[in-house]
C-alpha cells in the first residue's frame, strides 16, 4: 500500500475513535446495556493494531530516536509490568495493564509516530470536541427532562467497566480551559457575536459541571480560573469576568427552573448547589463521599506497607478494599459503602498497587512534563499556548490528589494527547536556530502554530 494513502486511512480511523471516545456511555438501551462503549475501546485497539501493522510493513517510518519522555514512559510501564508479574491477582492486573497500555499507545503512540501536522492536530481536537459537545447536549437534555439527579450524572460518567466510575466533568475541564483561552486571546471571540457564542458554549458546559455534584471539579475549575488570571494579568482577566458572571446567573436560574418543573427528582442526594459547595472540606461521617475518600487513602497506605517495593498489583485495589470492608465492617477508620472503586488518588494508587517502583517512575514522568513546561515558559517568549498548557498540567496534577485517572479512558487519552500537543507547540515556539534538524520523511511542525 502507498505510504501516503495508508497514513490518510490511519488518521481517519484515529479521528473516528476520538469522536466516539466521549460518547462511551449506556444511553442507547438501559435494558441491554448497549451504548457506544462497545465501539470506542475496540476502535482504539484497531487503530493501535493498524499502526503496528504499518510499522512492520514499512508504510510508516519508525521513530529514529528515543526521546527522554519516551524512556520515562517506558520506565513507568516497565514498573507496572513488573508489579503485574508479582500481583496478588495476575489476571486482574494483566487486564488493567493492557488497558492503560492501550490508552497510552492510542493517545501518545499514534501522534508520536505520525508526527501530526498543524491541520491534523486541529482535526483531531475537532473530532474530540464534536463528541464532547454531543455529550454536553445529551446531559443537559436529560436533566431538563427528568430533573437534576446524581443518578444521571453517574450513568453518564460511567466508563467501560460496569462498576467503574469517573466524573465526566474531568473530561469537560479542558473544554472549559479552551473556552476561557478563546475569550482571552482568540481574535474572533473579541467581537460581539463571537463573545456571545463562546459565552453560550461556556454556560452550557458549566451547567453540566454544576449538575454533576463534583466538589473536586468545583475546586479544580476555581483553581483553573485563578491560574488564568495570574498568567494573563488584570487587563486580559477582565475579559473573563462578564462571561463568567452571565454563566453563573444562567446556571442558578436553570437550577431553580428545573427544580420547579421537577420538584422531587429520583435521587437520595440533596440537590442543593450551595450545600454541595459548602461540603468540600467536610470529611466527617455525615459526608459519605468525602469520608469514603479518606478511608481509601488510609487503606492505600496500609497496602503499601504490605508490599512496599512492587505493590499488591495494578488494578487490584478495588477488590482488596471491597473484601476488607466486607470482613471488617466495624473498623472505626473505614466507611463500609461496599462500592468497588479506586483509591481516589492517583499517587496513592501507584503507591499501593505498584509500590515504590511504580510511584517513583510515575512521579518522574509527571515531574518531567512539568519541568519541560516550566523550561518552555521561562526560556522562550510567552504565548497563549504556554498559558494553556501550564494551567492544564497544574490542575491535572492537583485533581489527581482526589481521583485516579490512569485507568479512565476518556480522561487519560486526552492527557496523552495533551502531552504530544505540548511538545508540538513547544518546538514551534523555539527560535529557528535552536531547533534540531527535522527528519526528511515527514514535515517539521509549522512555526506559526
TrEMBL record:
Where are the membrane-spanning stretches?
A: 34-60, 72-90, 96-114, 121-141, 168-185, 194-211, 217-233, 240-258, 350-371
The O-antigen ligase-related domain extends over 205-360
Compartment list = Membrane
Question: What Gene Ontology molecular function terms does this protein carry?
Answer: ligase activity
Q: How does it sit in the membrane?
A: Multi-pass membrane protein
InterPro entries on file: O-antigen_ligase-rel_domated, WaaL-like
Q: Which UniProt keywords apply?
A: Ligase, Membrane, Transmembrane, Transmembrane helix
- In Swiss-Prot or TrEMBL terms, this protein is called O-antigen ligase family protein
Organism classification: Bacteria, Pseudomonadati, Bacteroidota, Cytophagia, Cytophagales
